[in-house]
Design a protein that fits this description.
Radius of gyration: 24 Å
Distance between the termini: 86 Å
Strand content: under 5%
Strand order of the largest sheet: 1-2
Mean pLDDT: 77
Shape: elongated
Low-confidence stretches: 1-8, 177-203
Length: 203
C-alpha cells in the first residue's frame, strides 16, 4: 500500500490554484541586500544625522539593533524622550532672559525630530529601494528556484524579483498591500509628534 506522502507526490498539481507566499528570504537568497539592517547601513552612510535621530528615539530590544526590527520599533517611538530633548531649548517664563523665541525653538526641535522619523525616513527608504540590484535572467548565476508563472504569489517584498527573474506576470504577483499602510503609519507618527509641539508648562 502506498504511503500518504507518495500518494500526494504522484498526484497531478494544478499550479494555477497554488499560492506562494514570498518574504524577504526570497530576495536574500538571490543575493539582494534587502534586509532592514542593510537599510540601516545605507541611512548611516547617506544621512548620518537621520541615523542618529532614529537610533536615539526608536528603542531596540536588548542585544538587537534598531534596524533589524525597524517596523516593530517604529511602534515604540518614545515621545516623552522627544519632549525632554526639546525642553532644553525652553526657558522659564519668569526668567529675566525669557523670550517668545524660546517656545519657537522648542517647537522647531520637535518638528525636526518628527520630520526625520516620518518623511525623511520614508524618502530614504524609497531611495534605498532604488539602489537594490535586482538580478535578471541573463545576469543571475546562482541556483534558480522551481517556480511556476501560472501560480499566484503573495509577496511581502518591495522588489520586482519575481517578475524580472522568473517572468511571473504582474497579475499573478500583485503589489505588496501593506506598502501604502506603512506610509500612512508614518503620517500618523508625524501627527502624533506634532501634537506634542506645544511646550510643557514650566514654573
Amino acid at each position: 500500500m502506498q504511503s500518504q506522502a507518495s500518494l500526494f507526490d504522484d498526484a497531478p498539481i494544478n499550479h494555477s490554484r497554488c499560492l506562494y507566499i514570498v518574504g524577504n528570504g526570497f530576495d536574500l537568497h538571490h543575493r539582494i541586500p534587502s534586509s532592514y539592517s542593510h537599510f540601516g547601513a545605507y541611512v548611516r552612510a547617506t544621512d548620518a544625522r537621520l541615523a542618529d535621530i532614529a537610533e536615539d528615539f526608536l528603542p531596540a530590544p536588548v542585544g538587537e539593533t534598531l534596524w533589524s526590527r525597524l517596523e516593530e520599533n517604529l511602534a515604540w517611538l518614545d515621545t516623552d524622550q522627544i519632549v525632554d530633548q526639546a525642553s532644553i531649548f525652553l526657558n522659564s517664563p519668569g526668567a529675566d532672559d525669557w523670550s517668545d523665541a524660546d517656545n519657537h525653538a522648542y517647537q522647531y526641535e520637535v518638528e525636526q525630530i518628527a520630520t526625520a522619523l516620518s518623511s525623511r525616513l520614508k524618502a530614504s527608504f524609497h531611495a534605498w529601494l532604488r539602489t537594490l540590484p535586482i538580478p535578471s535572467v541573463g545576469s543571475w548565476t546562482g541556483p534558480r528556484l522551481r517556480l511556476y508563472t501560472t501560480a499566484r504569489y503573495l509577496s511581502f517584498n518591495y522588489t520586482s524579483t519575481l517578475t524580472r527573474l522568473y517572468d511571473v506576470p504582474e497579475d499573478r504577483n500583485p503589489p505588496y498591500p501593506r506598502a501604502h499602510d506603512r506610509s500612512r503609519r508614518r503620517r500618523n507618527l508625524r501627527a502624533c509628534a506634532r501634537a506634542r509641539t506645544s511646550p510643557p508648562i514650566r514654573s
